[in-house]
Amino acid sequence: MNPAVMLDDALARVRTQLRRWTQRFDVRPQRERVVMLIALAALAFWLADKLWVTPAFERSRAASVRLATAQNELNTLRTEAARLQALGAEQDRQLRADIAQWRQRVDGEAAMLRDYENTLVPADRMVELLEQMLPRHGRIQVRELRSLPRTDLMAARAEGAAAVAPALPAASATPLTTALNSAASANPTVYRQGVELTLEGGWGDLLAYLQALETMPRRVLWGGMSMKVEQHPKVVLTLRLYTLSLDGGWLEI
């Protein structure tokens, strides 16, 4: 059968049924018709509430809850961001203060080191001064004179610190450690340089020579001393003498 014809038949049956319901409604008493209209309106309202109003209200309430939750989380994030920003600013100020204090300390110690270096015999003049003093003290003879290995005191100190404290990974480096490492690399290195001098002569002459070393205007650092009598009155004296220098140059003997 043609679908259009089927549709027309269905609509005709619906119209016929509606006319019957209308006729039945019209023949009822007015009071009953009012009650039926009220019941029909209540049914329509109930259906609308169940199908549209209540679901829409629940969706709106759920959306409001999600919005409030998101707003609270946003406020929490803003508060945390402000706290971290303030903390970072405080840490930055503290780091800058620490770096300034460290640099001031390094400058002060460098000045003290230079002043102390000026009180010592220069490394390039040590051998010359030792030899110049010999003729003034009797018949002392030089049996042996040799230079000792140069020692980088700052490098030795850094190696000792590295052995005590484990190395930090690169990711944990802070602006303070970076600045300190840069400053340390720019500072002069302190070298300890020395000679071992073996002399032979009389006890009085050797003692006078030692006293002269002690009273020189520019001093030497004592590293060790040994003495033995090979054949009386000849005494063999071995001295280890050092000086400090910011210059790595050293005359090898």
Walkthrough of the structure:
The chain is 62% helix and 17% strand. The chain is of the alpha+beta class. It has two domains: 1-118; 121-245, 2-Layer Sandwich (Alpha-Beta Plaits). Strands 1, 2, 3, 4 and 5 form a five-stranded antiparallel β-sheet that branches. It starts with a helix and ends in an 8-residue tail after the last strand. Residues 161-173 have low confidence and may be disordered.
Q: CATH class of the largest domain, anyone?
A: Alpha Beta
CATH architecture label of the largest domain: 2-Layer Sandwich
In terms of per-residue confidence, which ranges show pLDDT below 50 for 5 or more consecutive residues?
A: 161-173
Sequence of secondary-structure elements = HHHEEHHEHEE
How many discrete structural domains?
2
Individual helix count: 6
The percent range for helix content is 55-70%
CATH topology type of the largest domain: Alpha-Beta Plaits
Separation, N- and C-terminal Cα atoms: 126 Å
Mean pLDDT: 78
Topology, number of strands: 5
Largest sheet: 5 strands, antiparallel
Per CATH, the superfamily of the largest domain is Ribosomal protein S6/Translation elongation factor EF1B
**SSE class:** alpha+beta
Rg, please?
A: 52 Å
Shape: rod-shaped
Which range does the strand content fall in? 15-25%
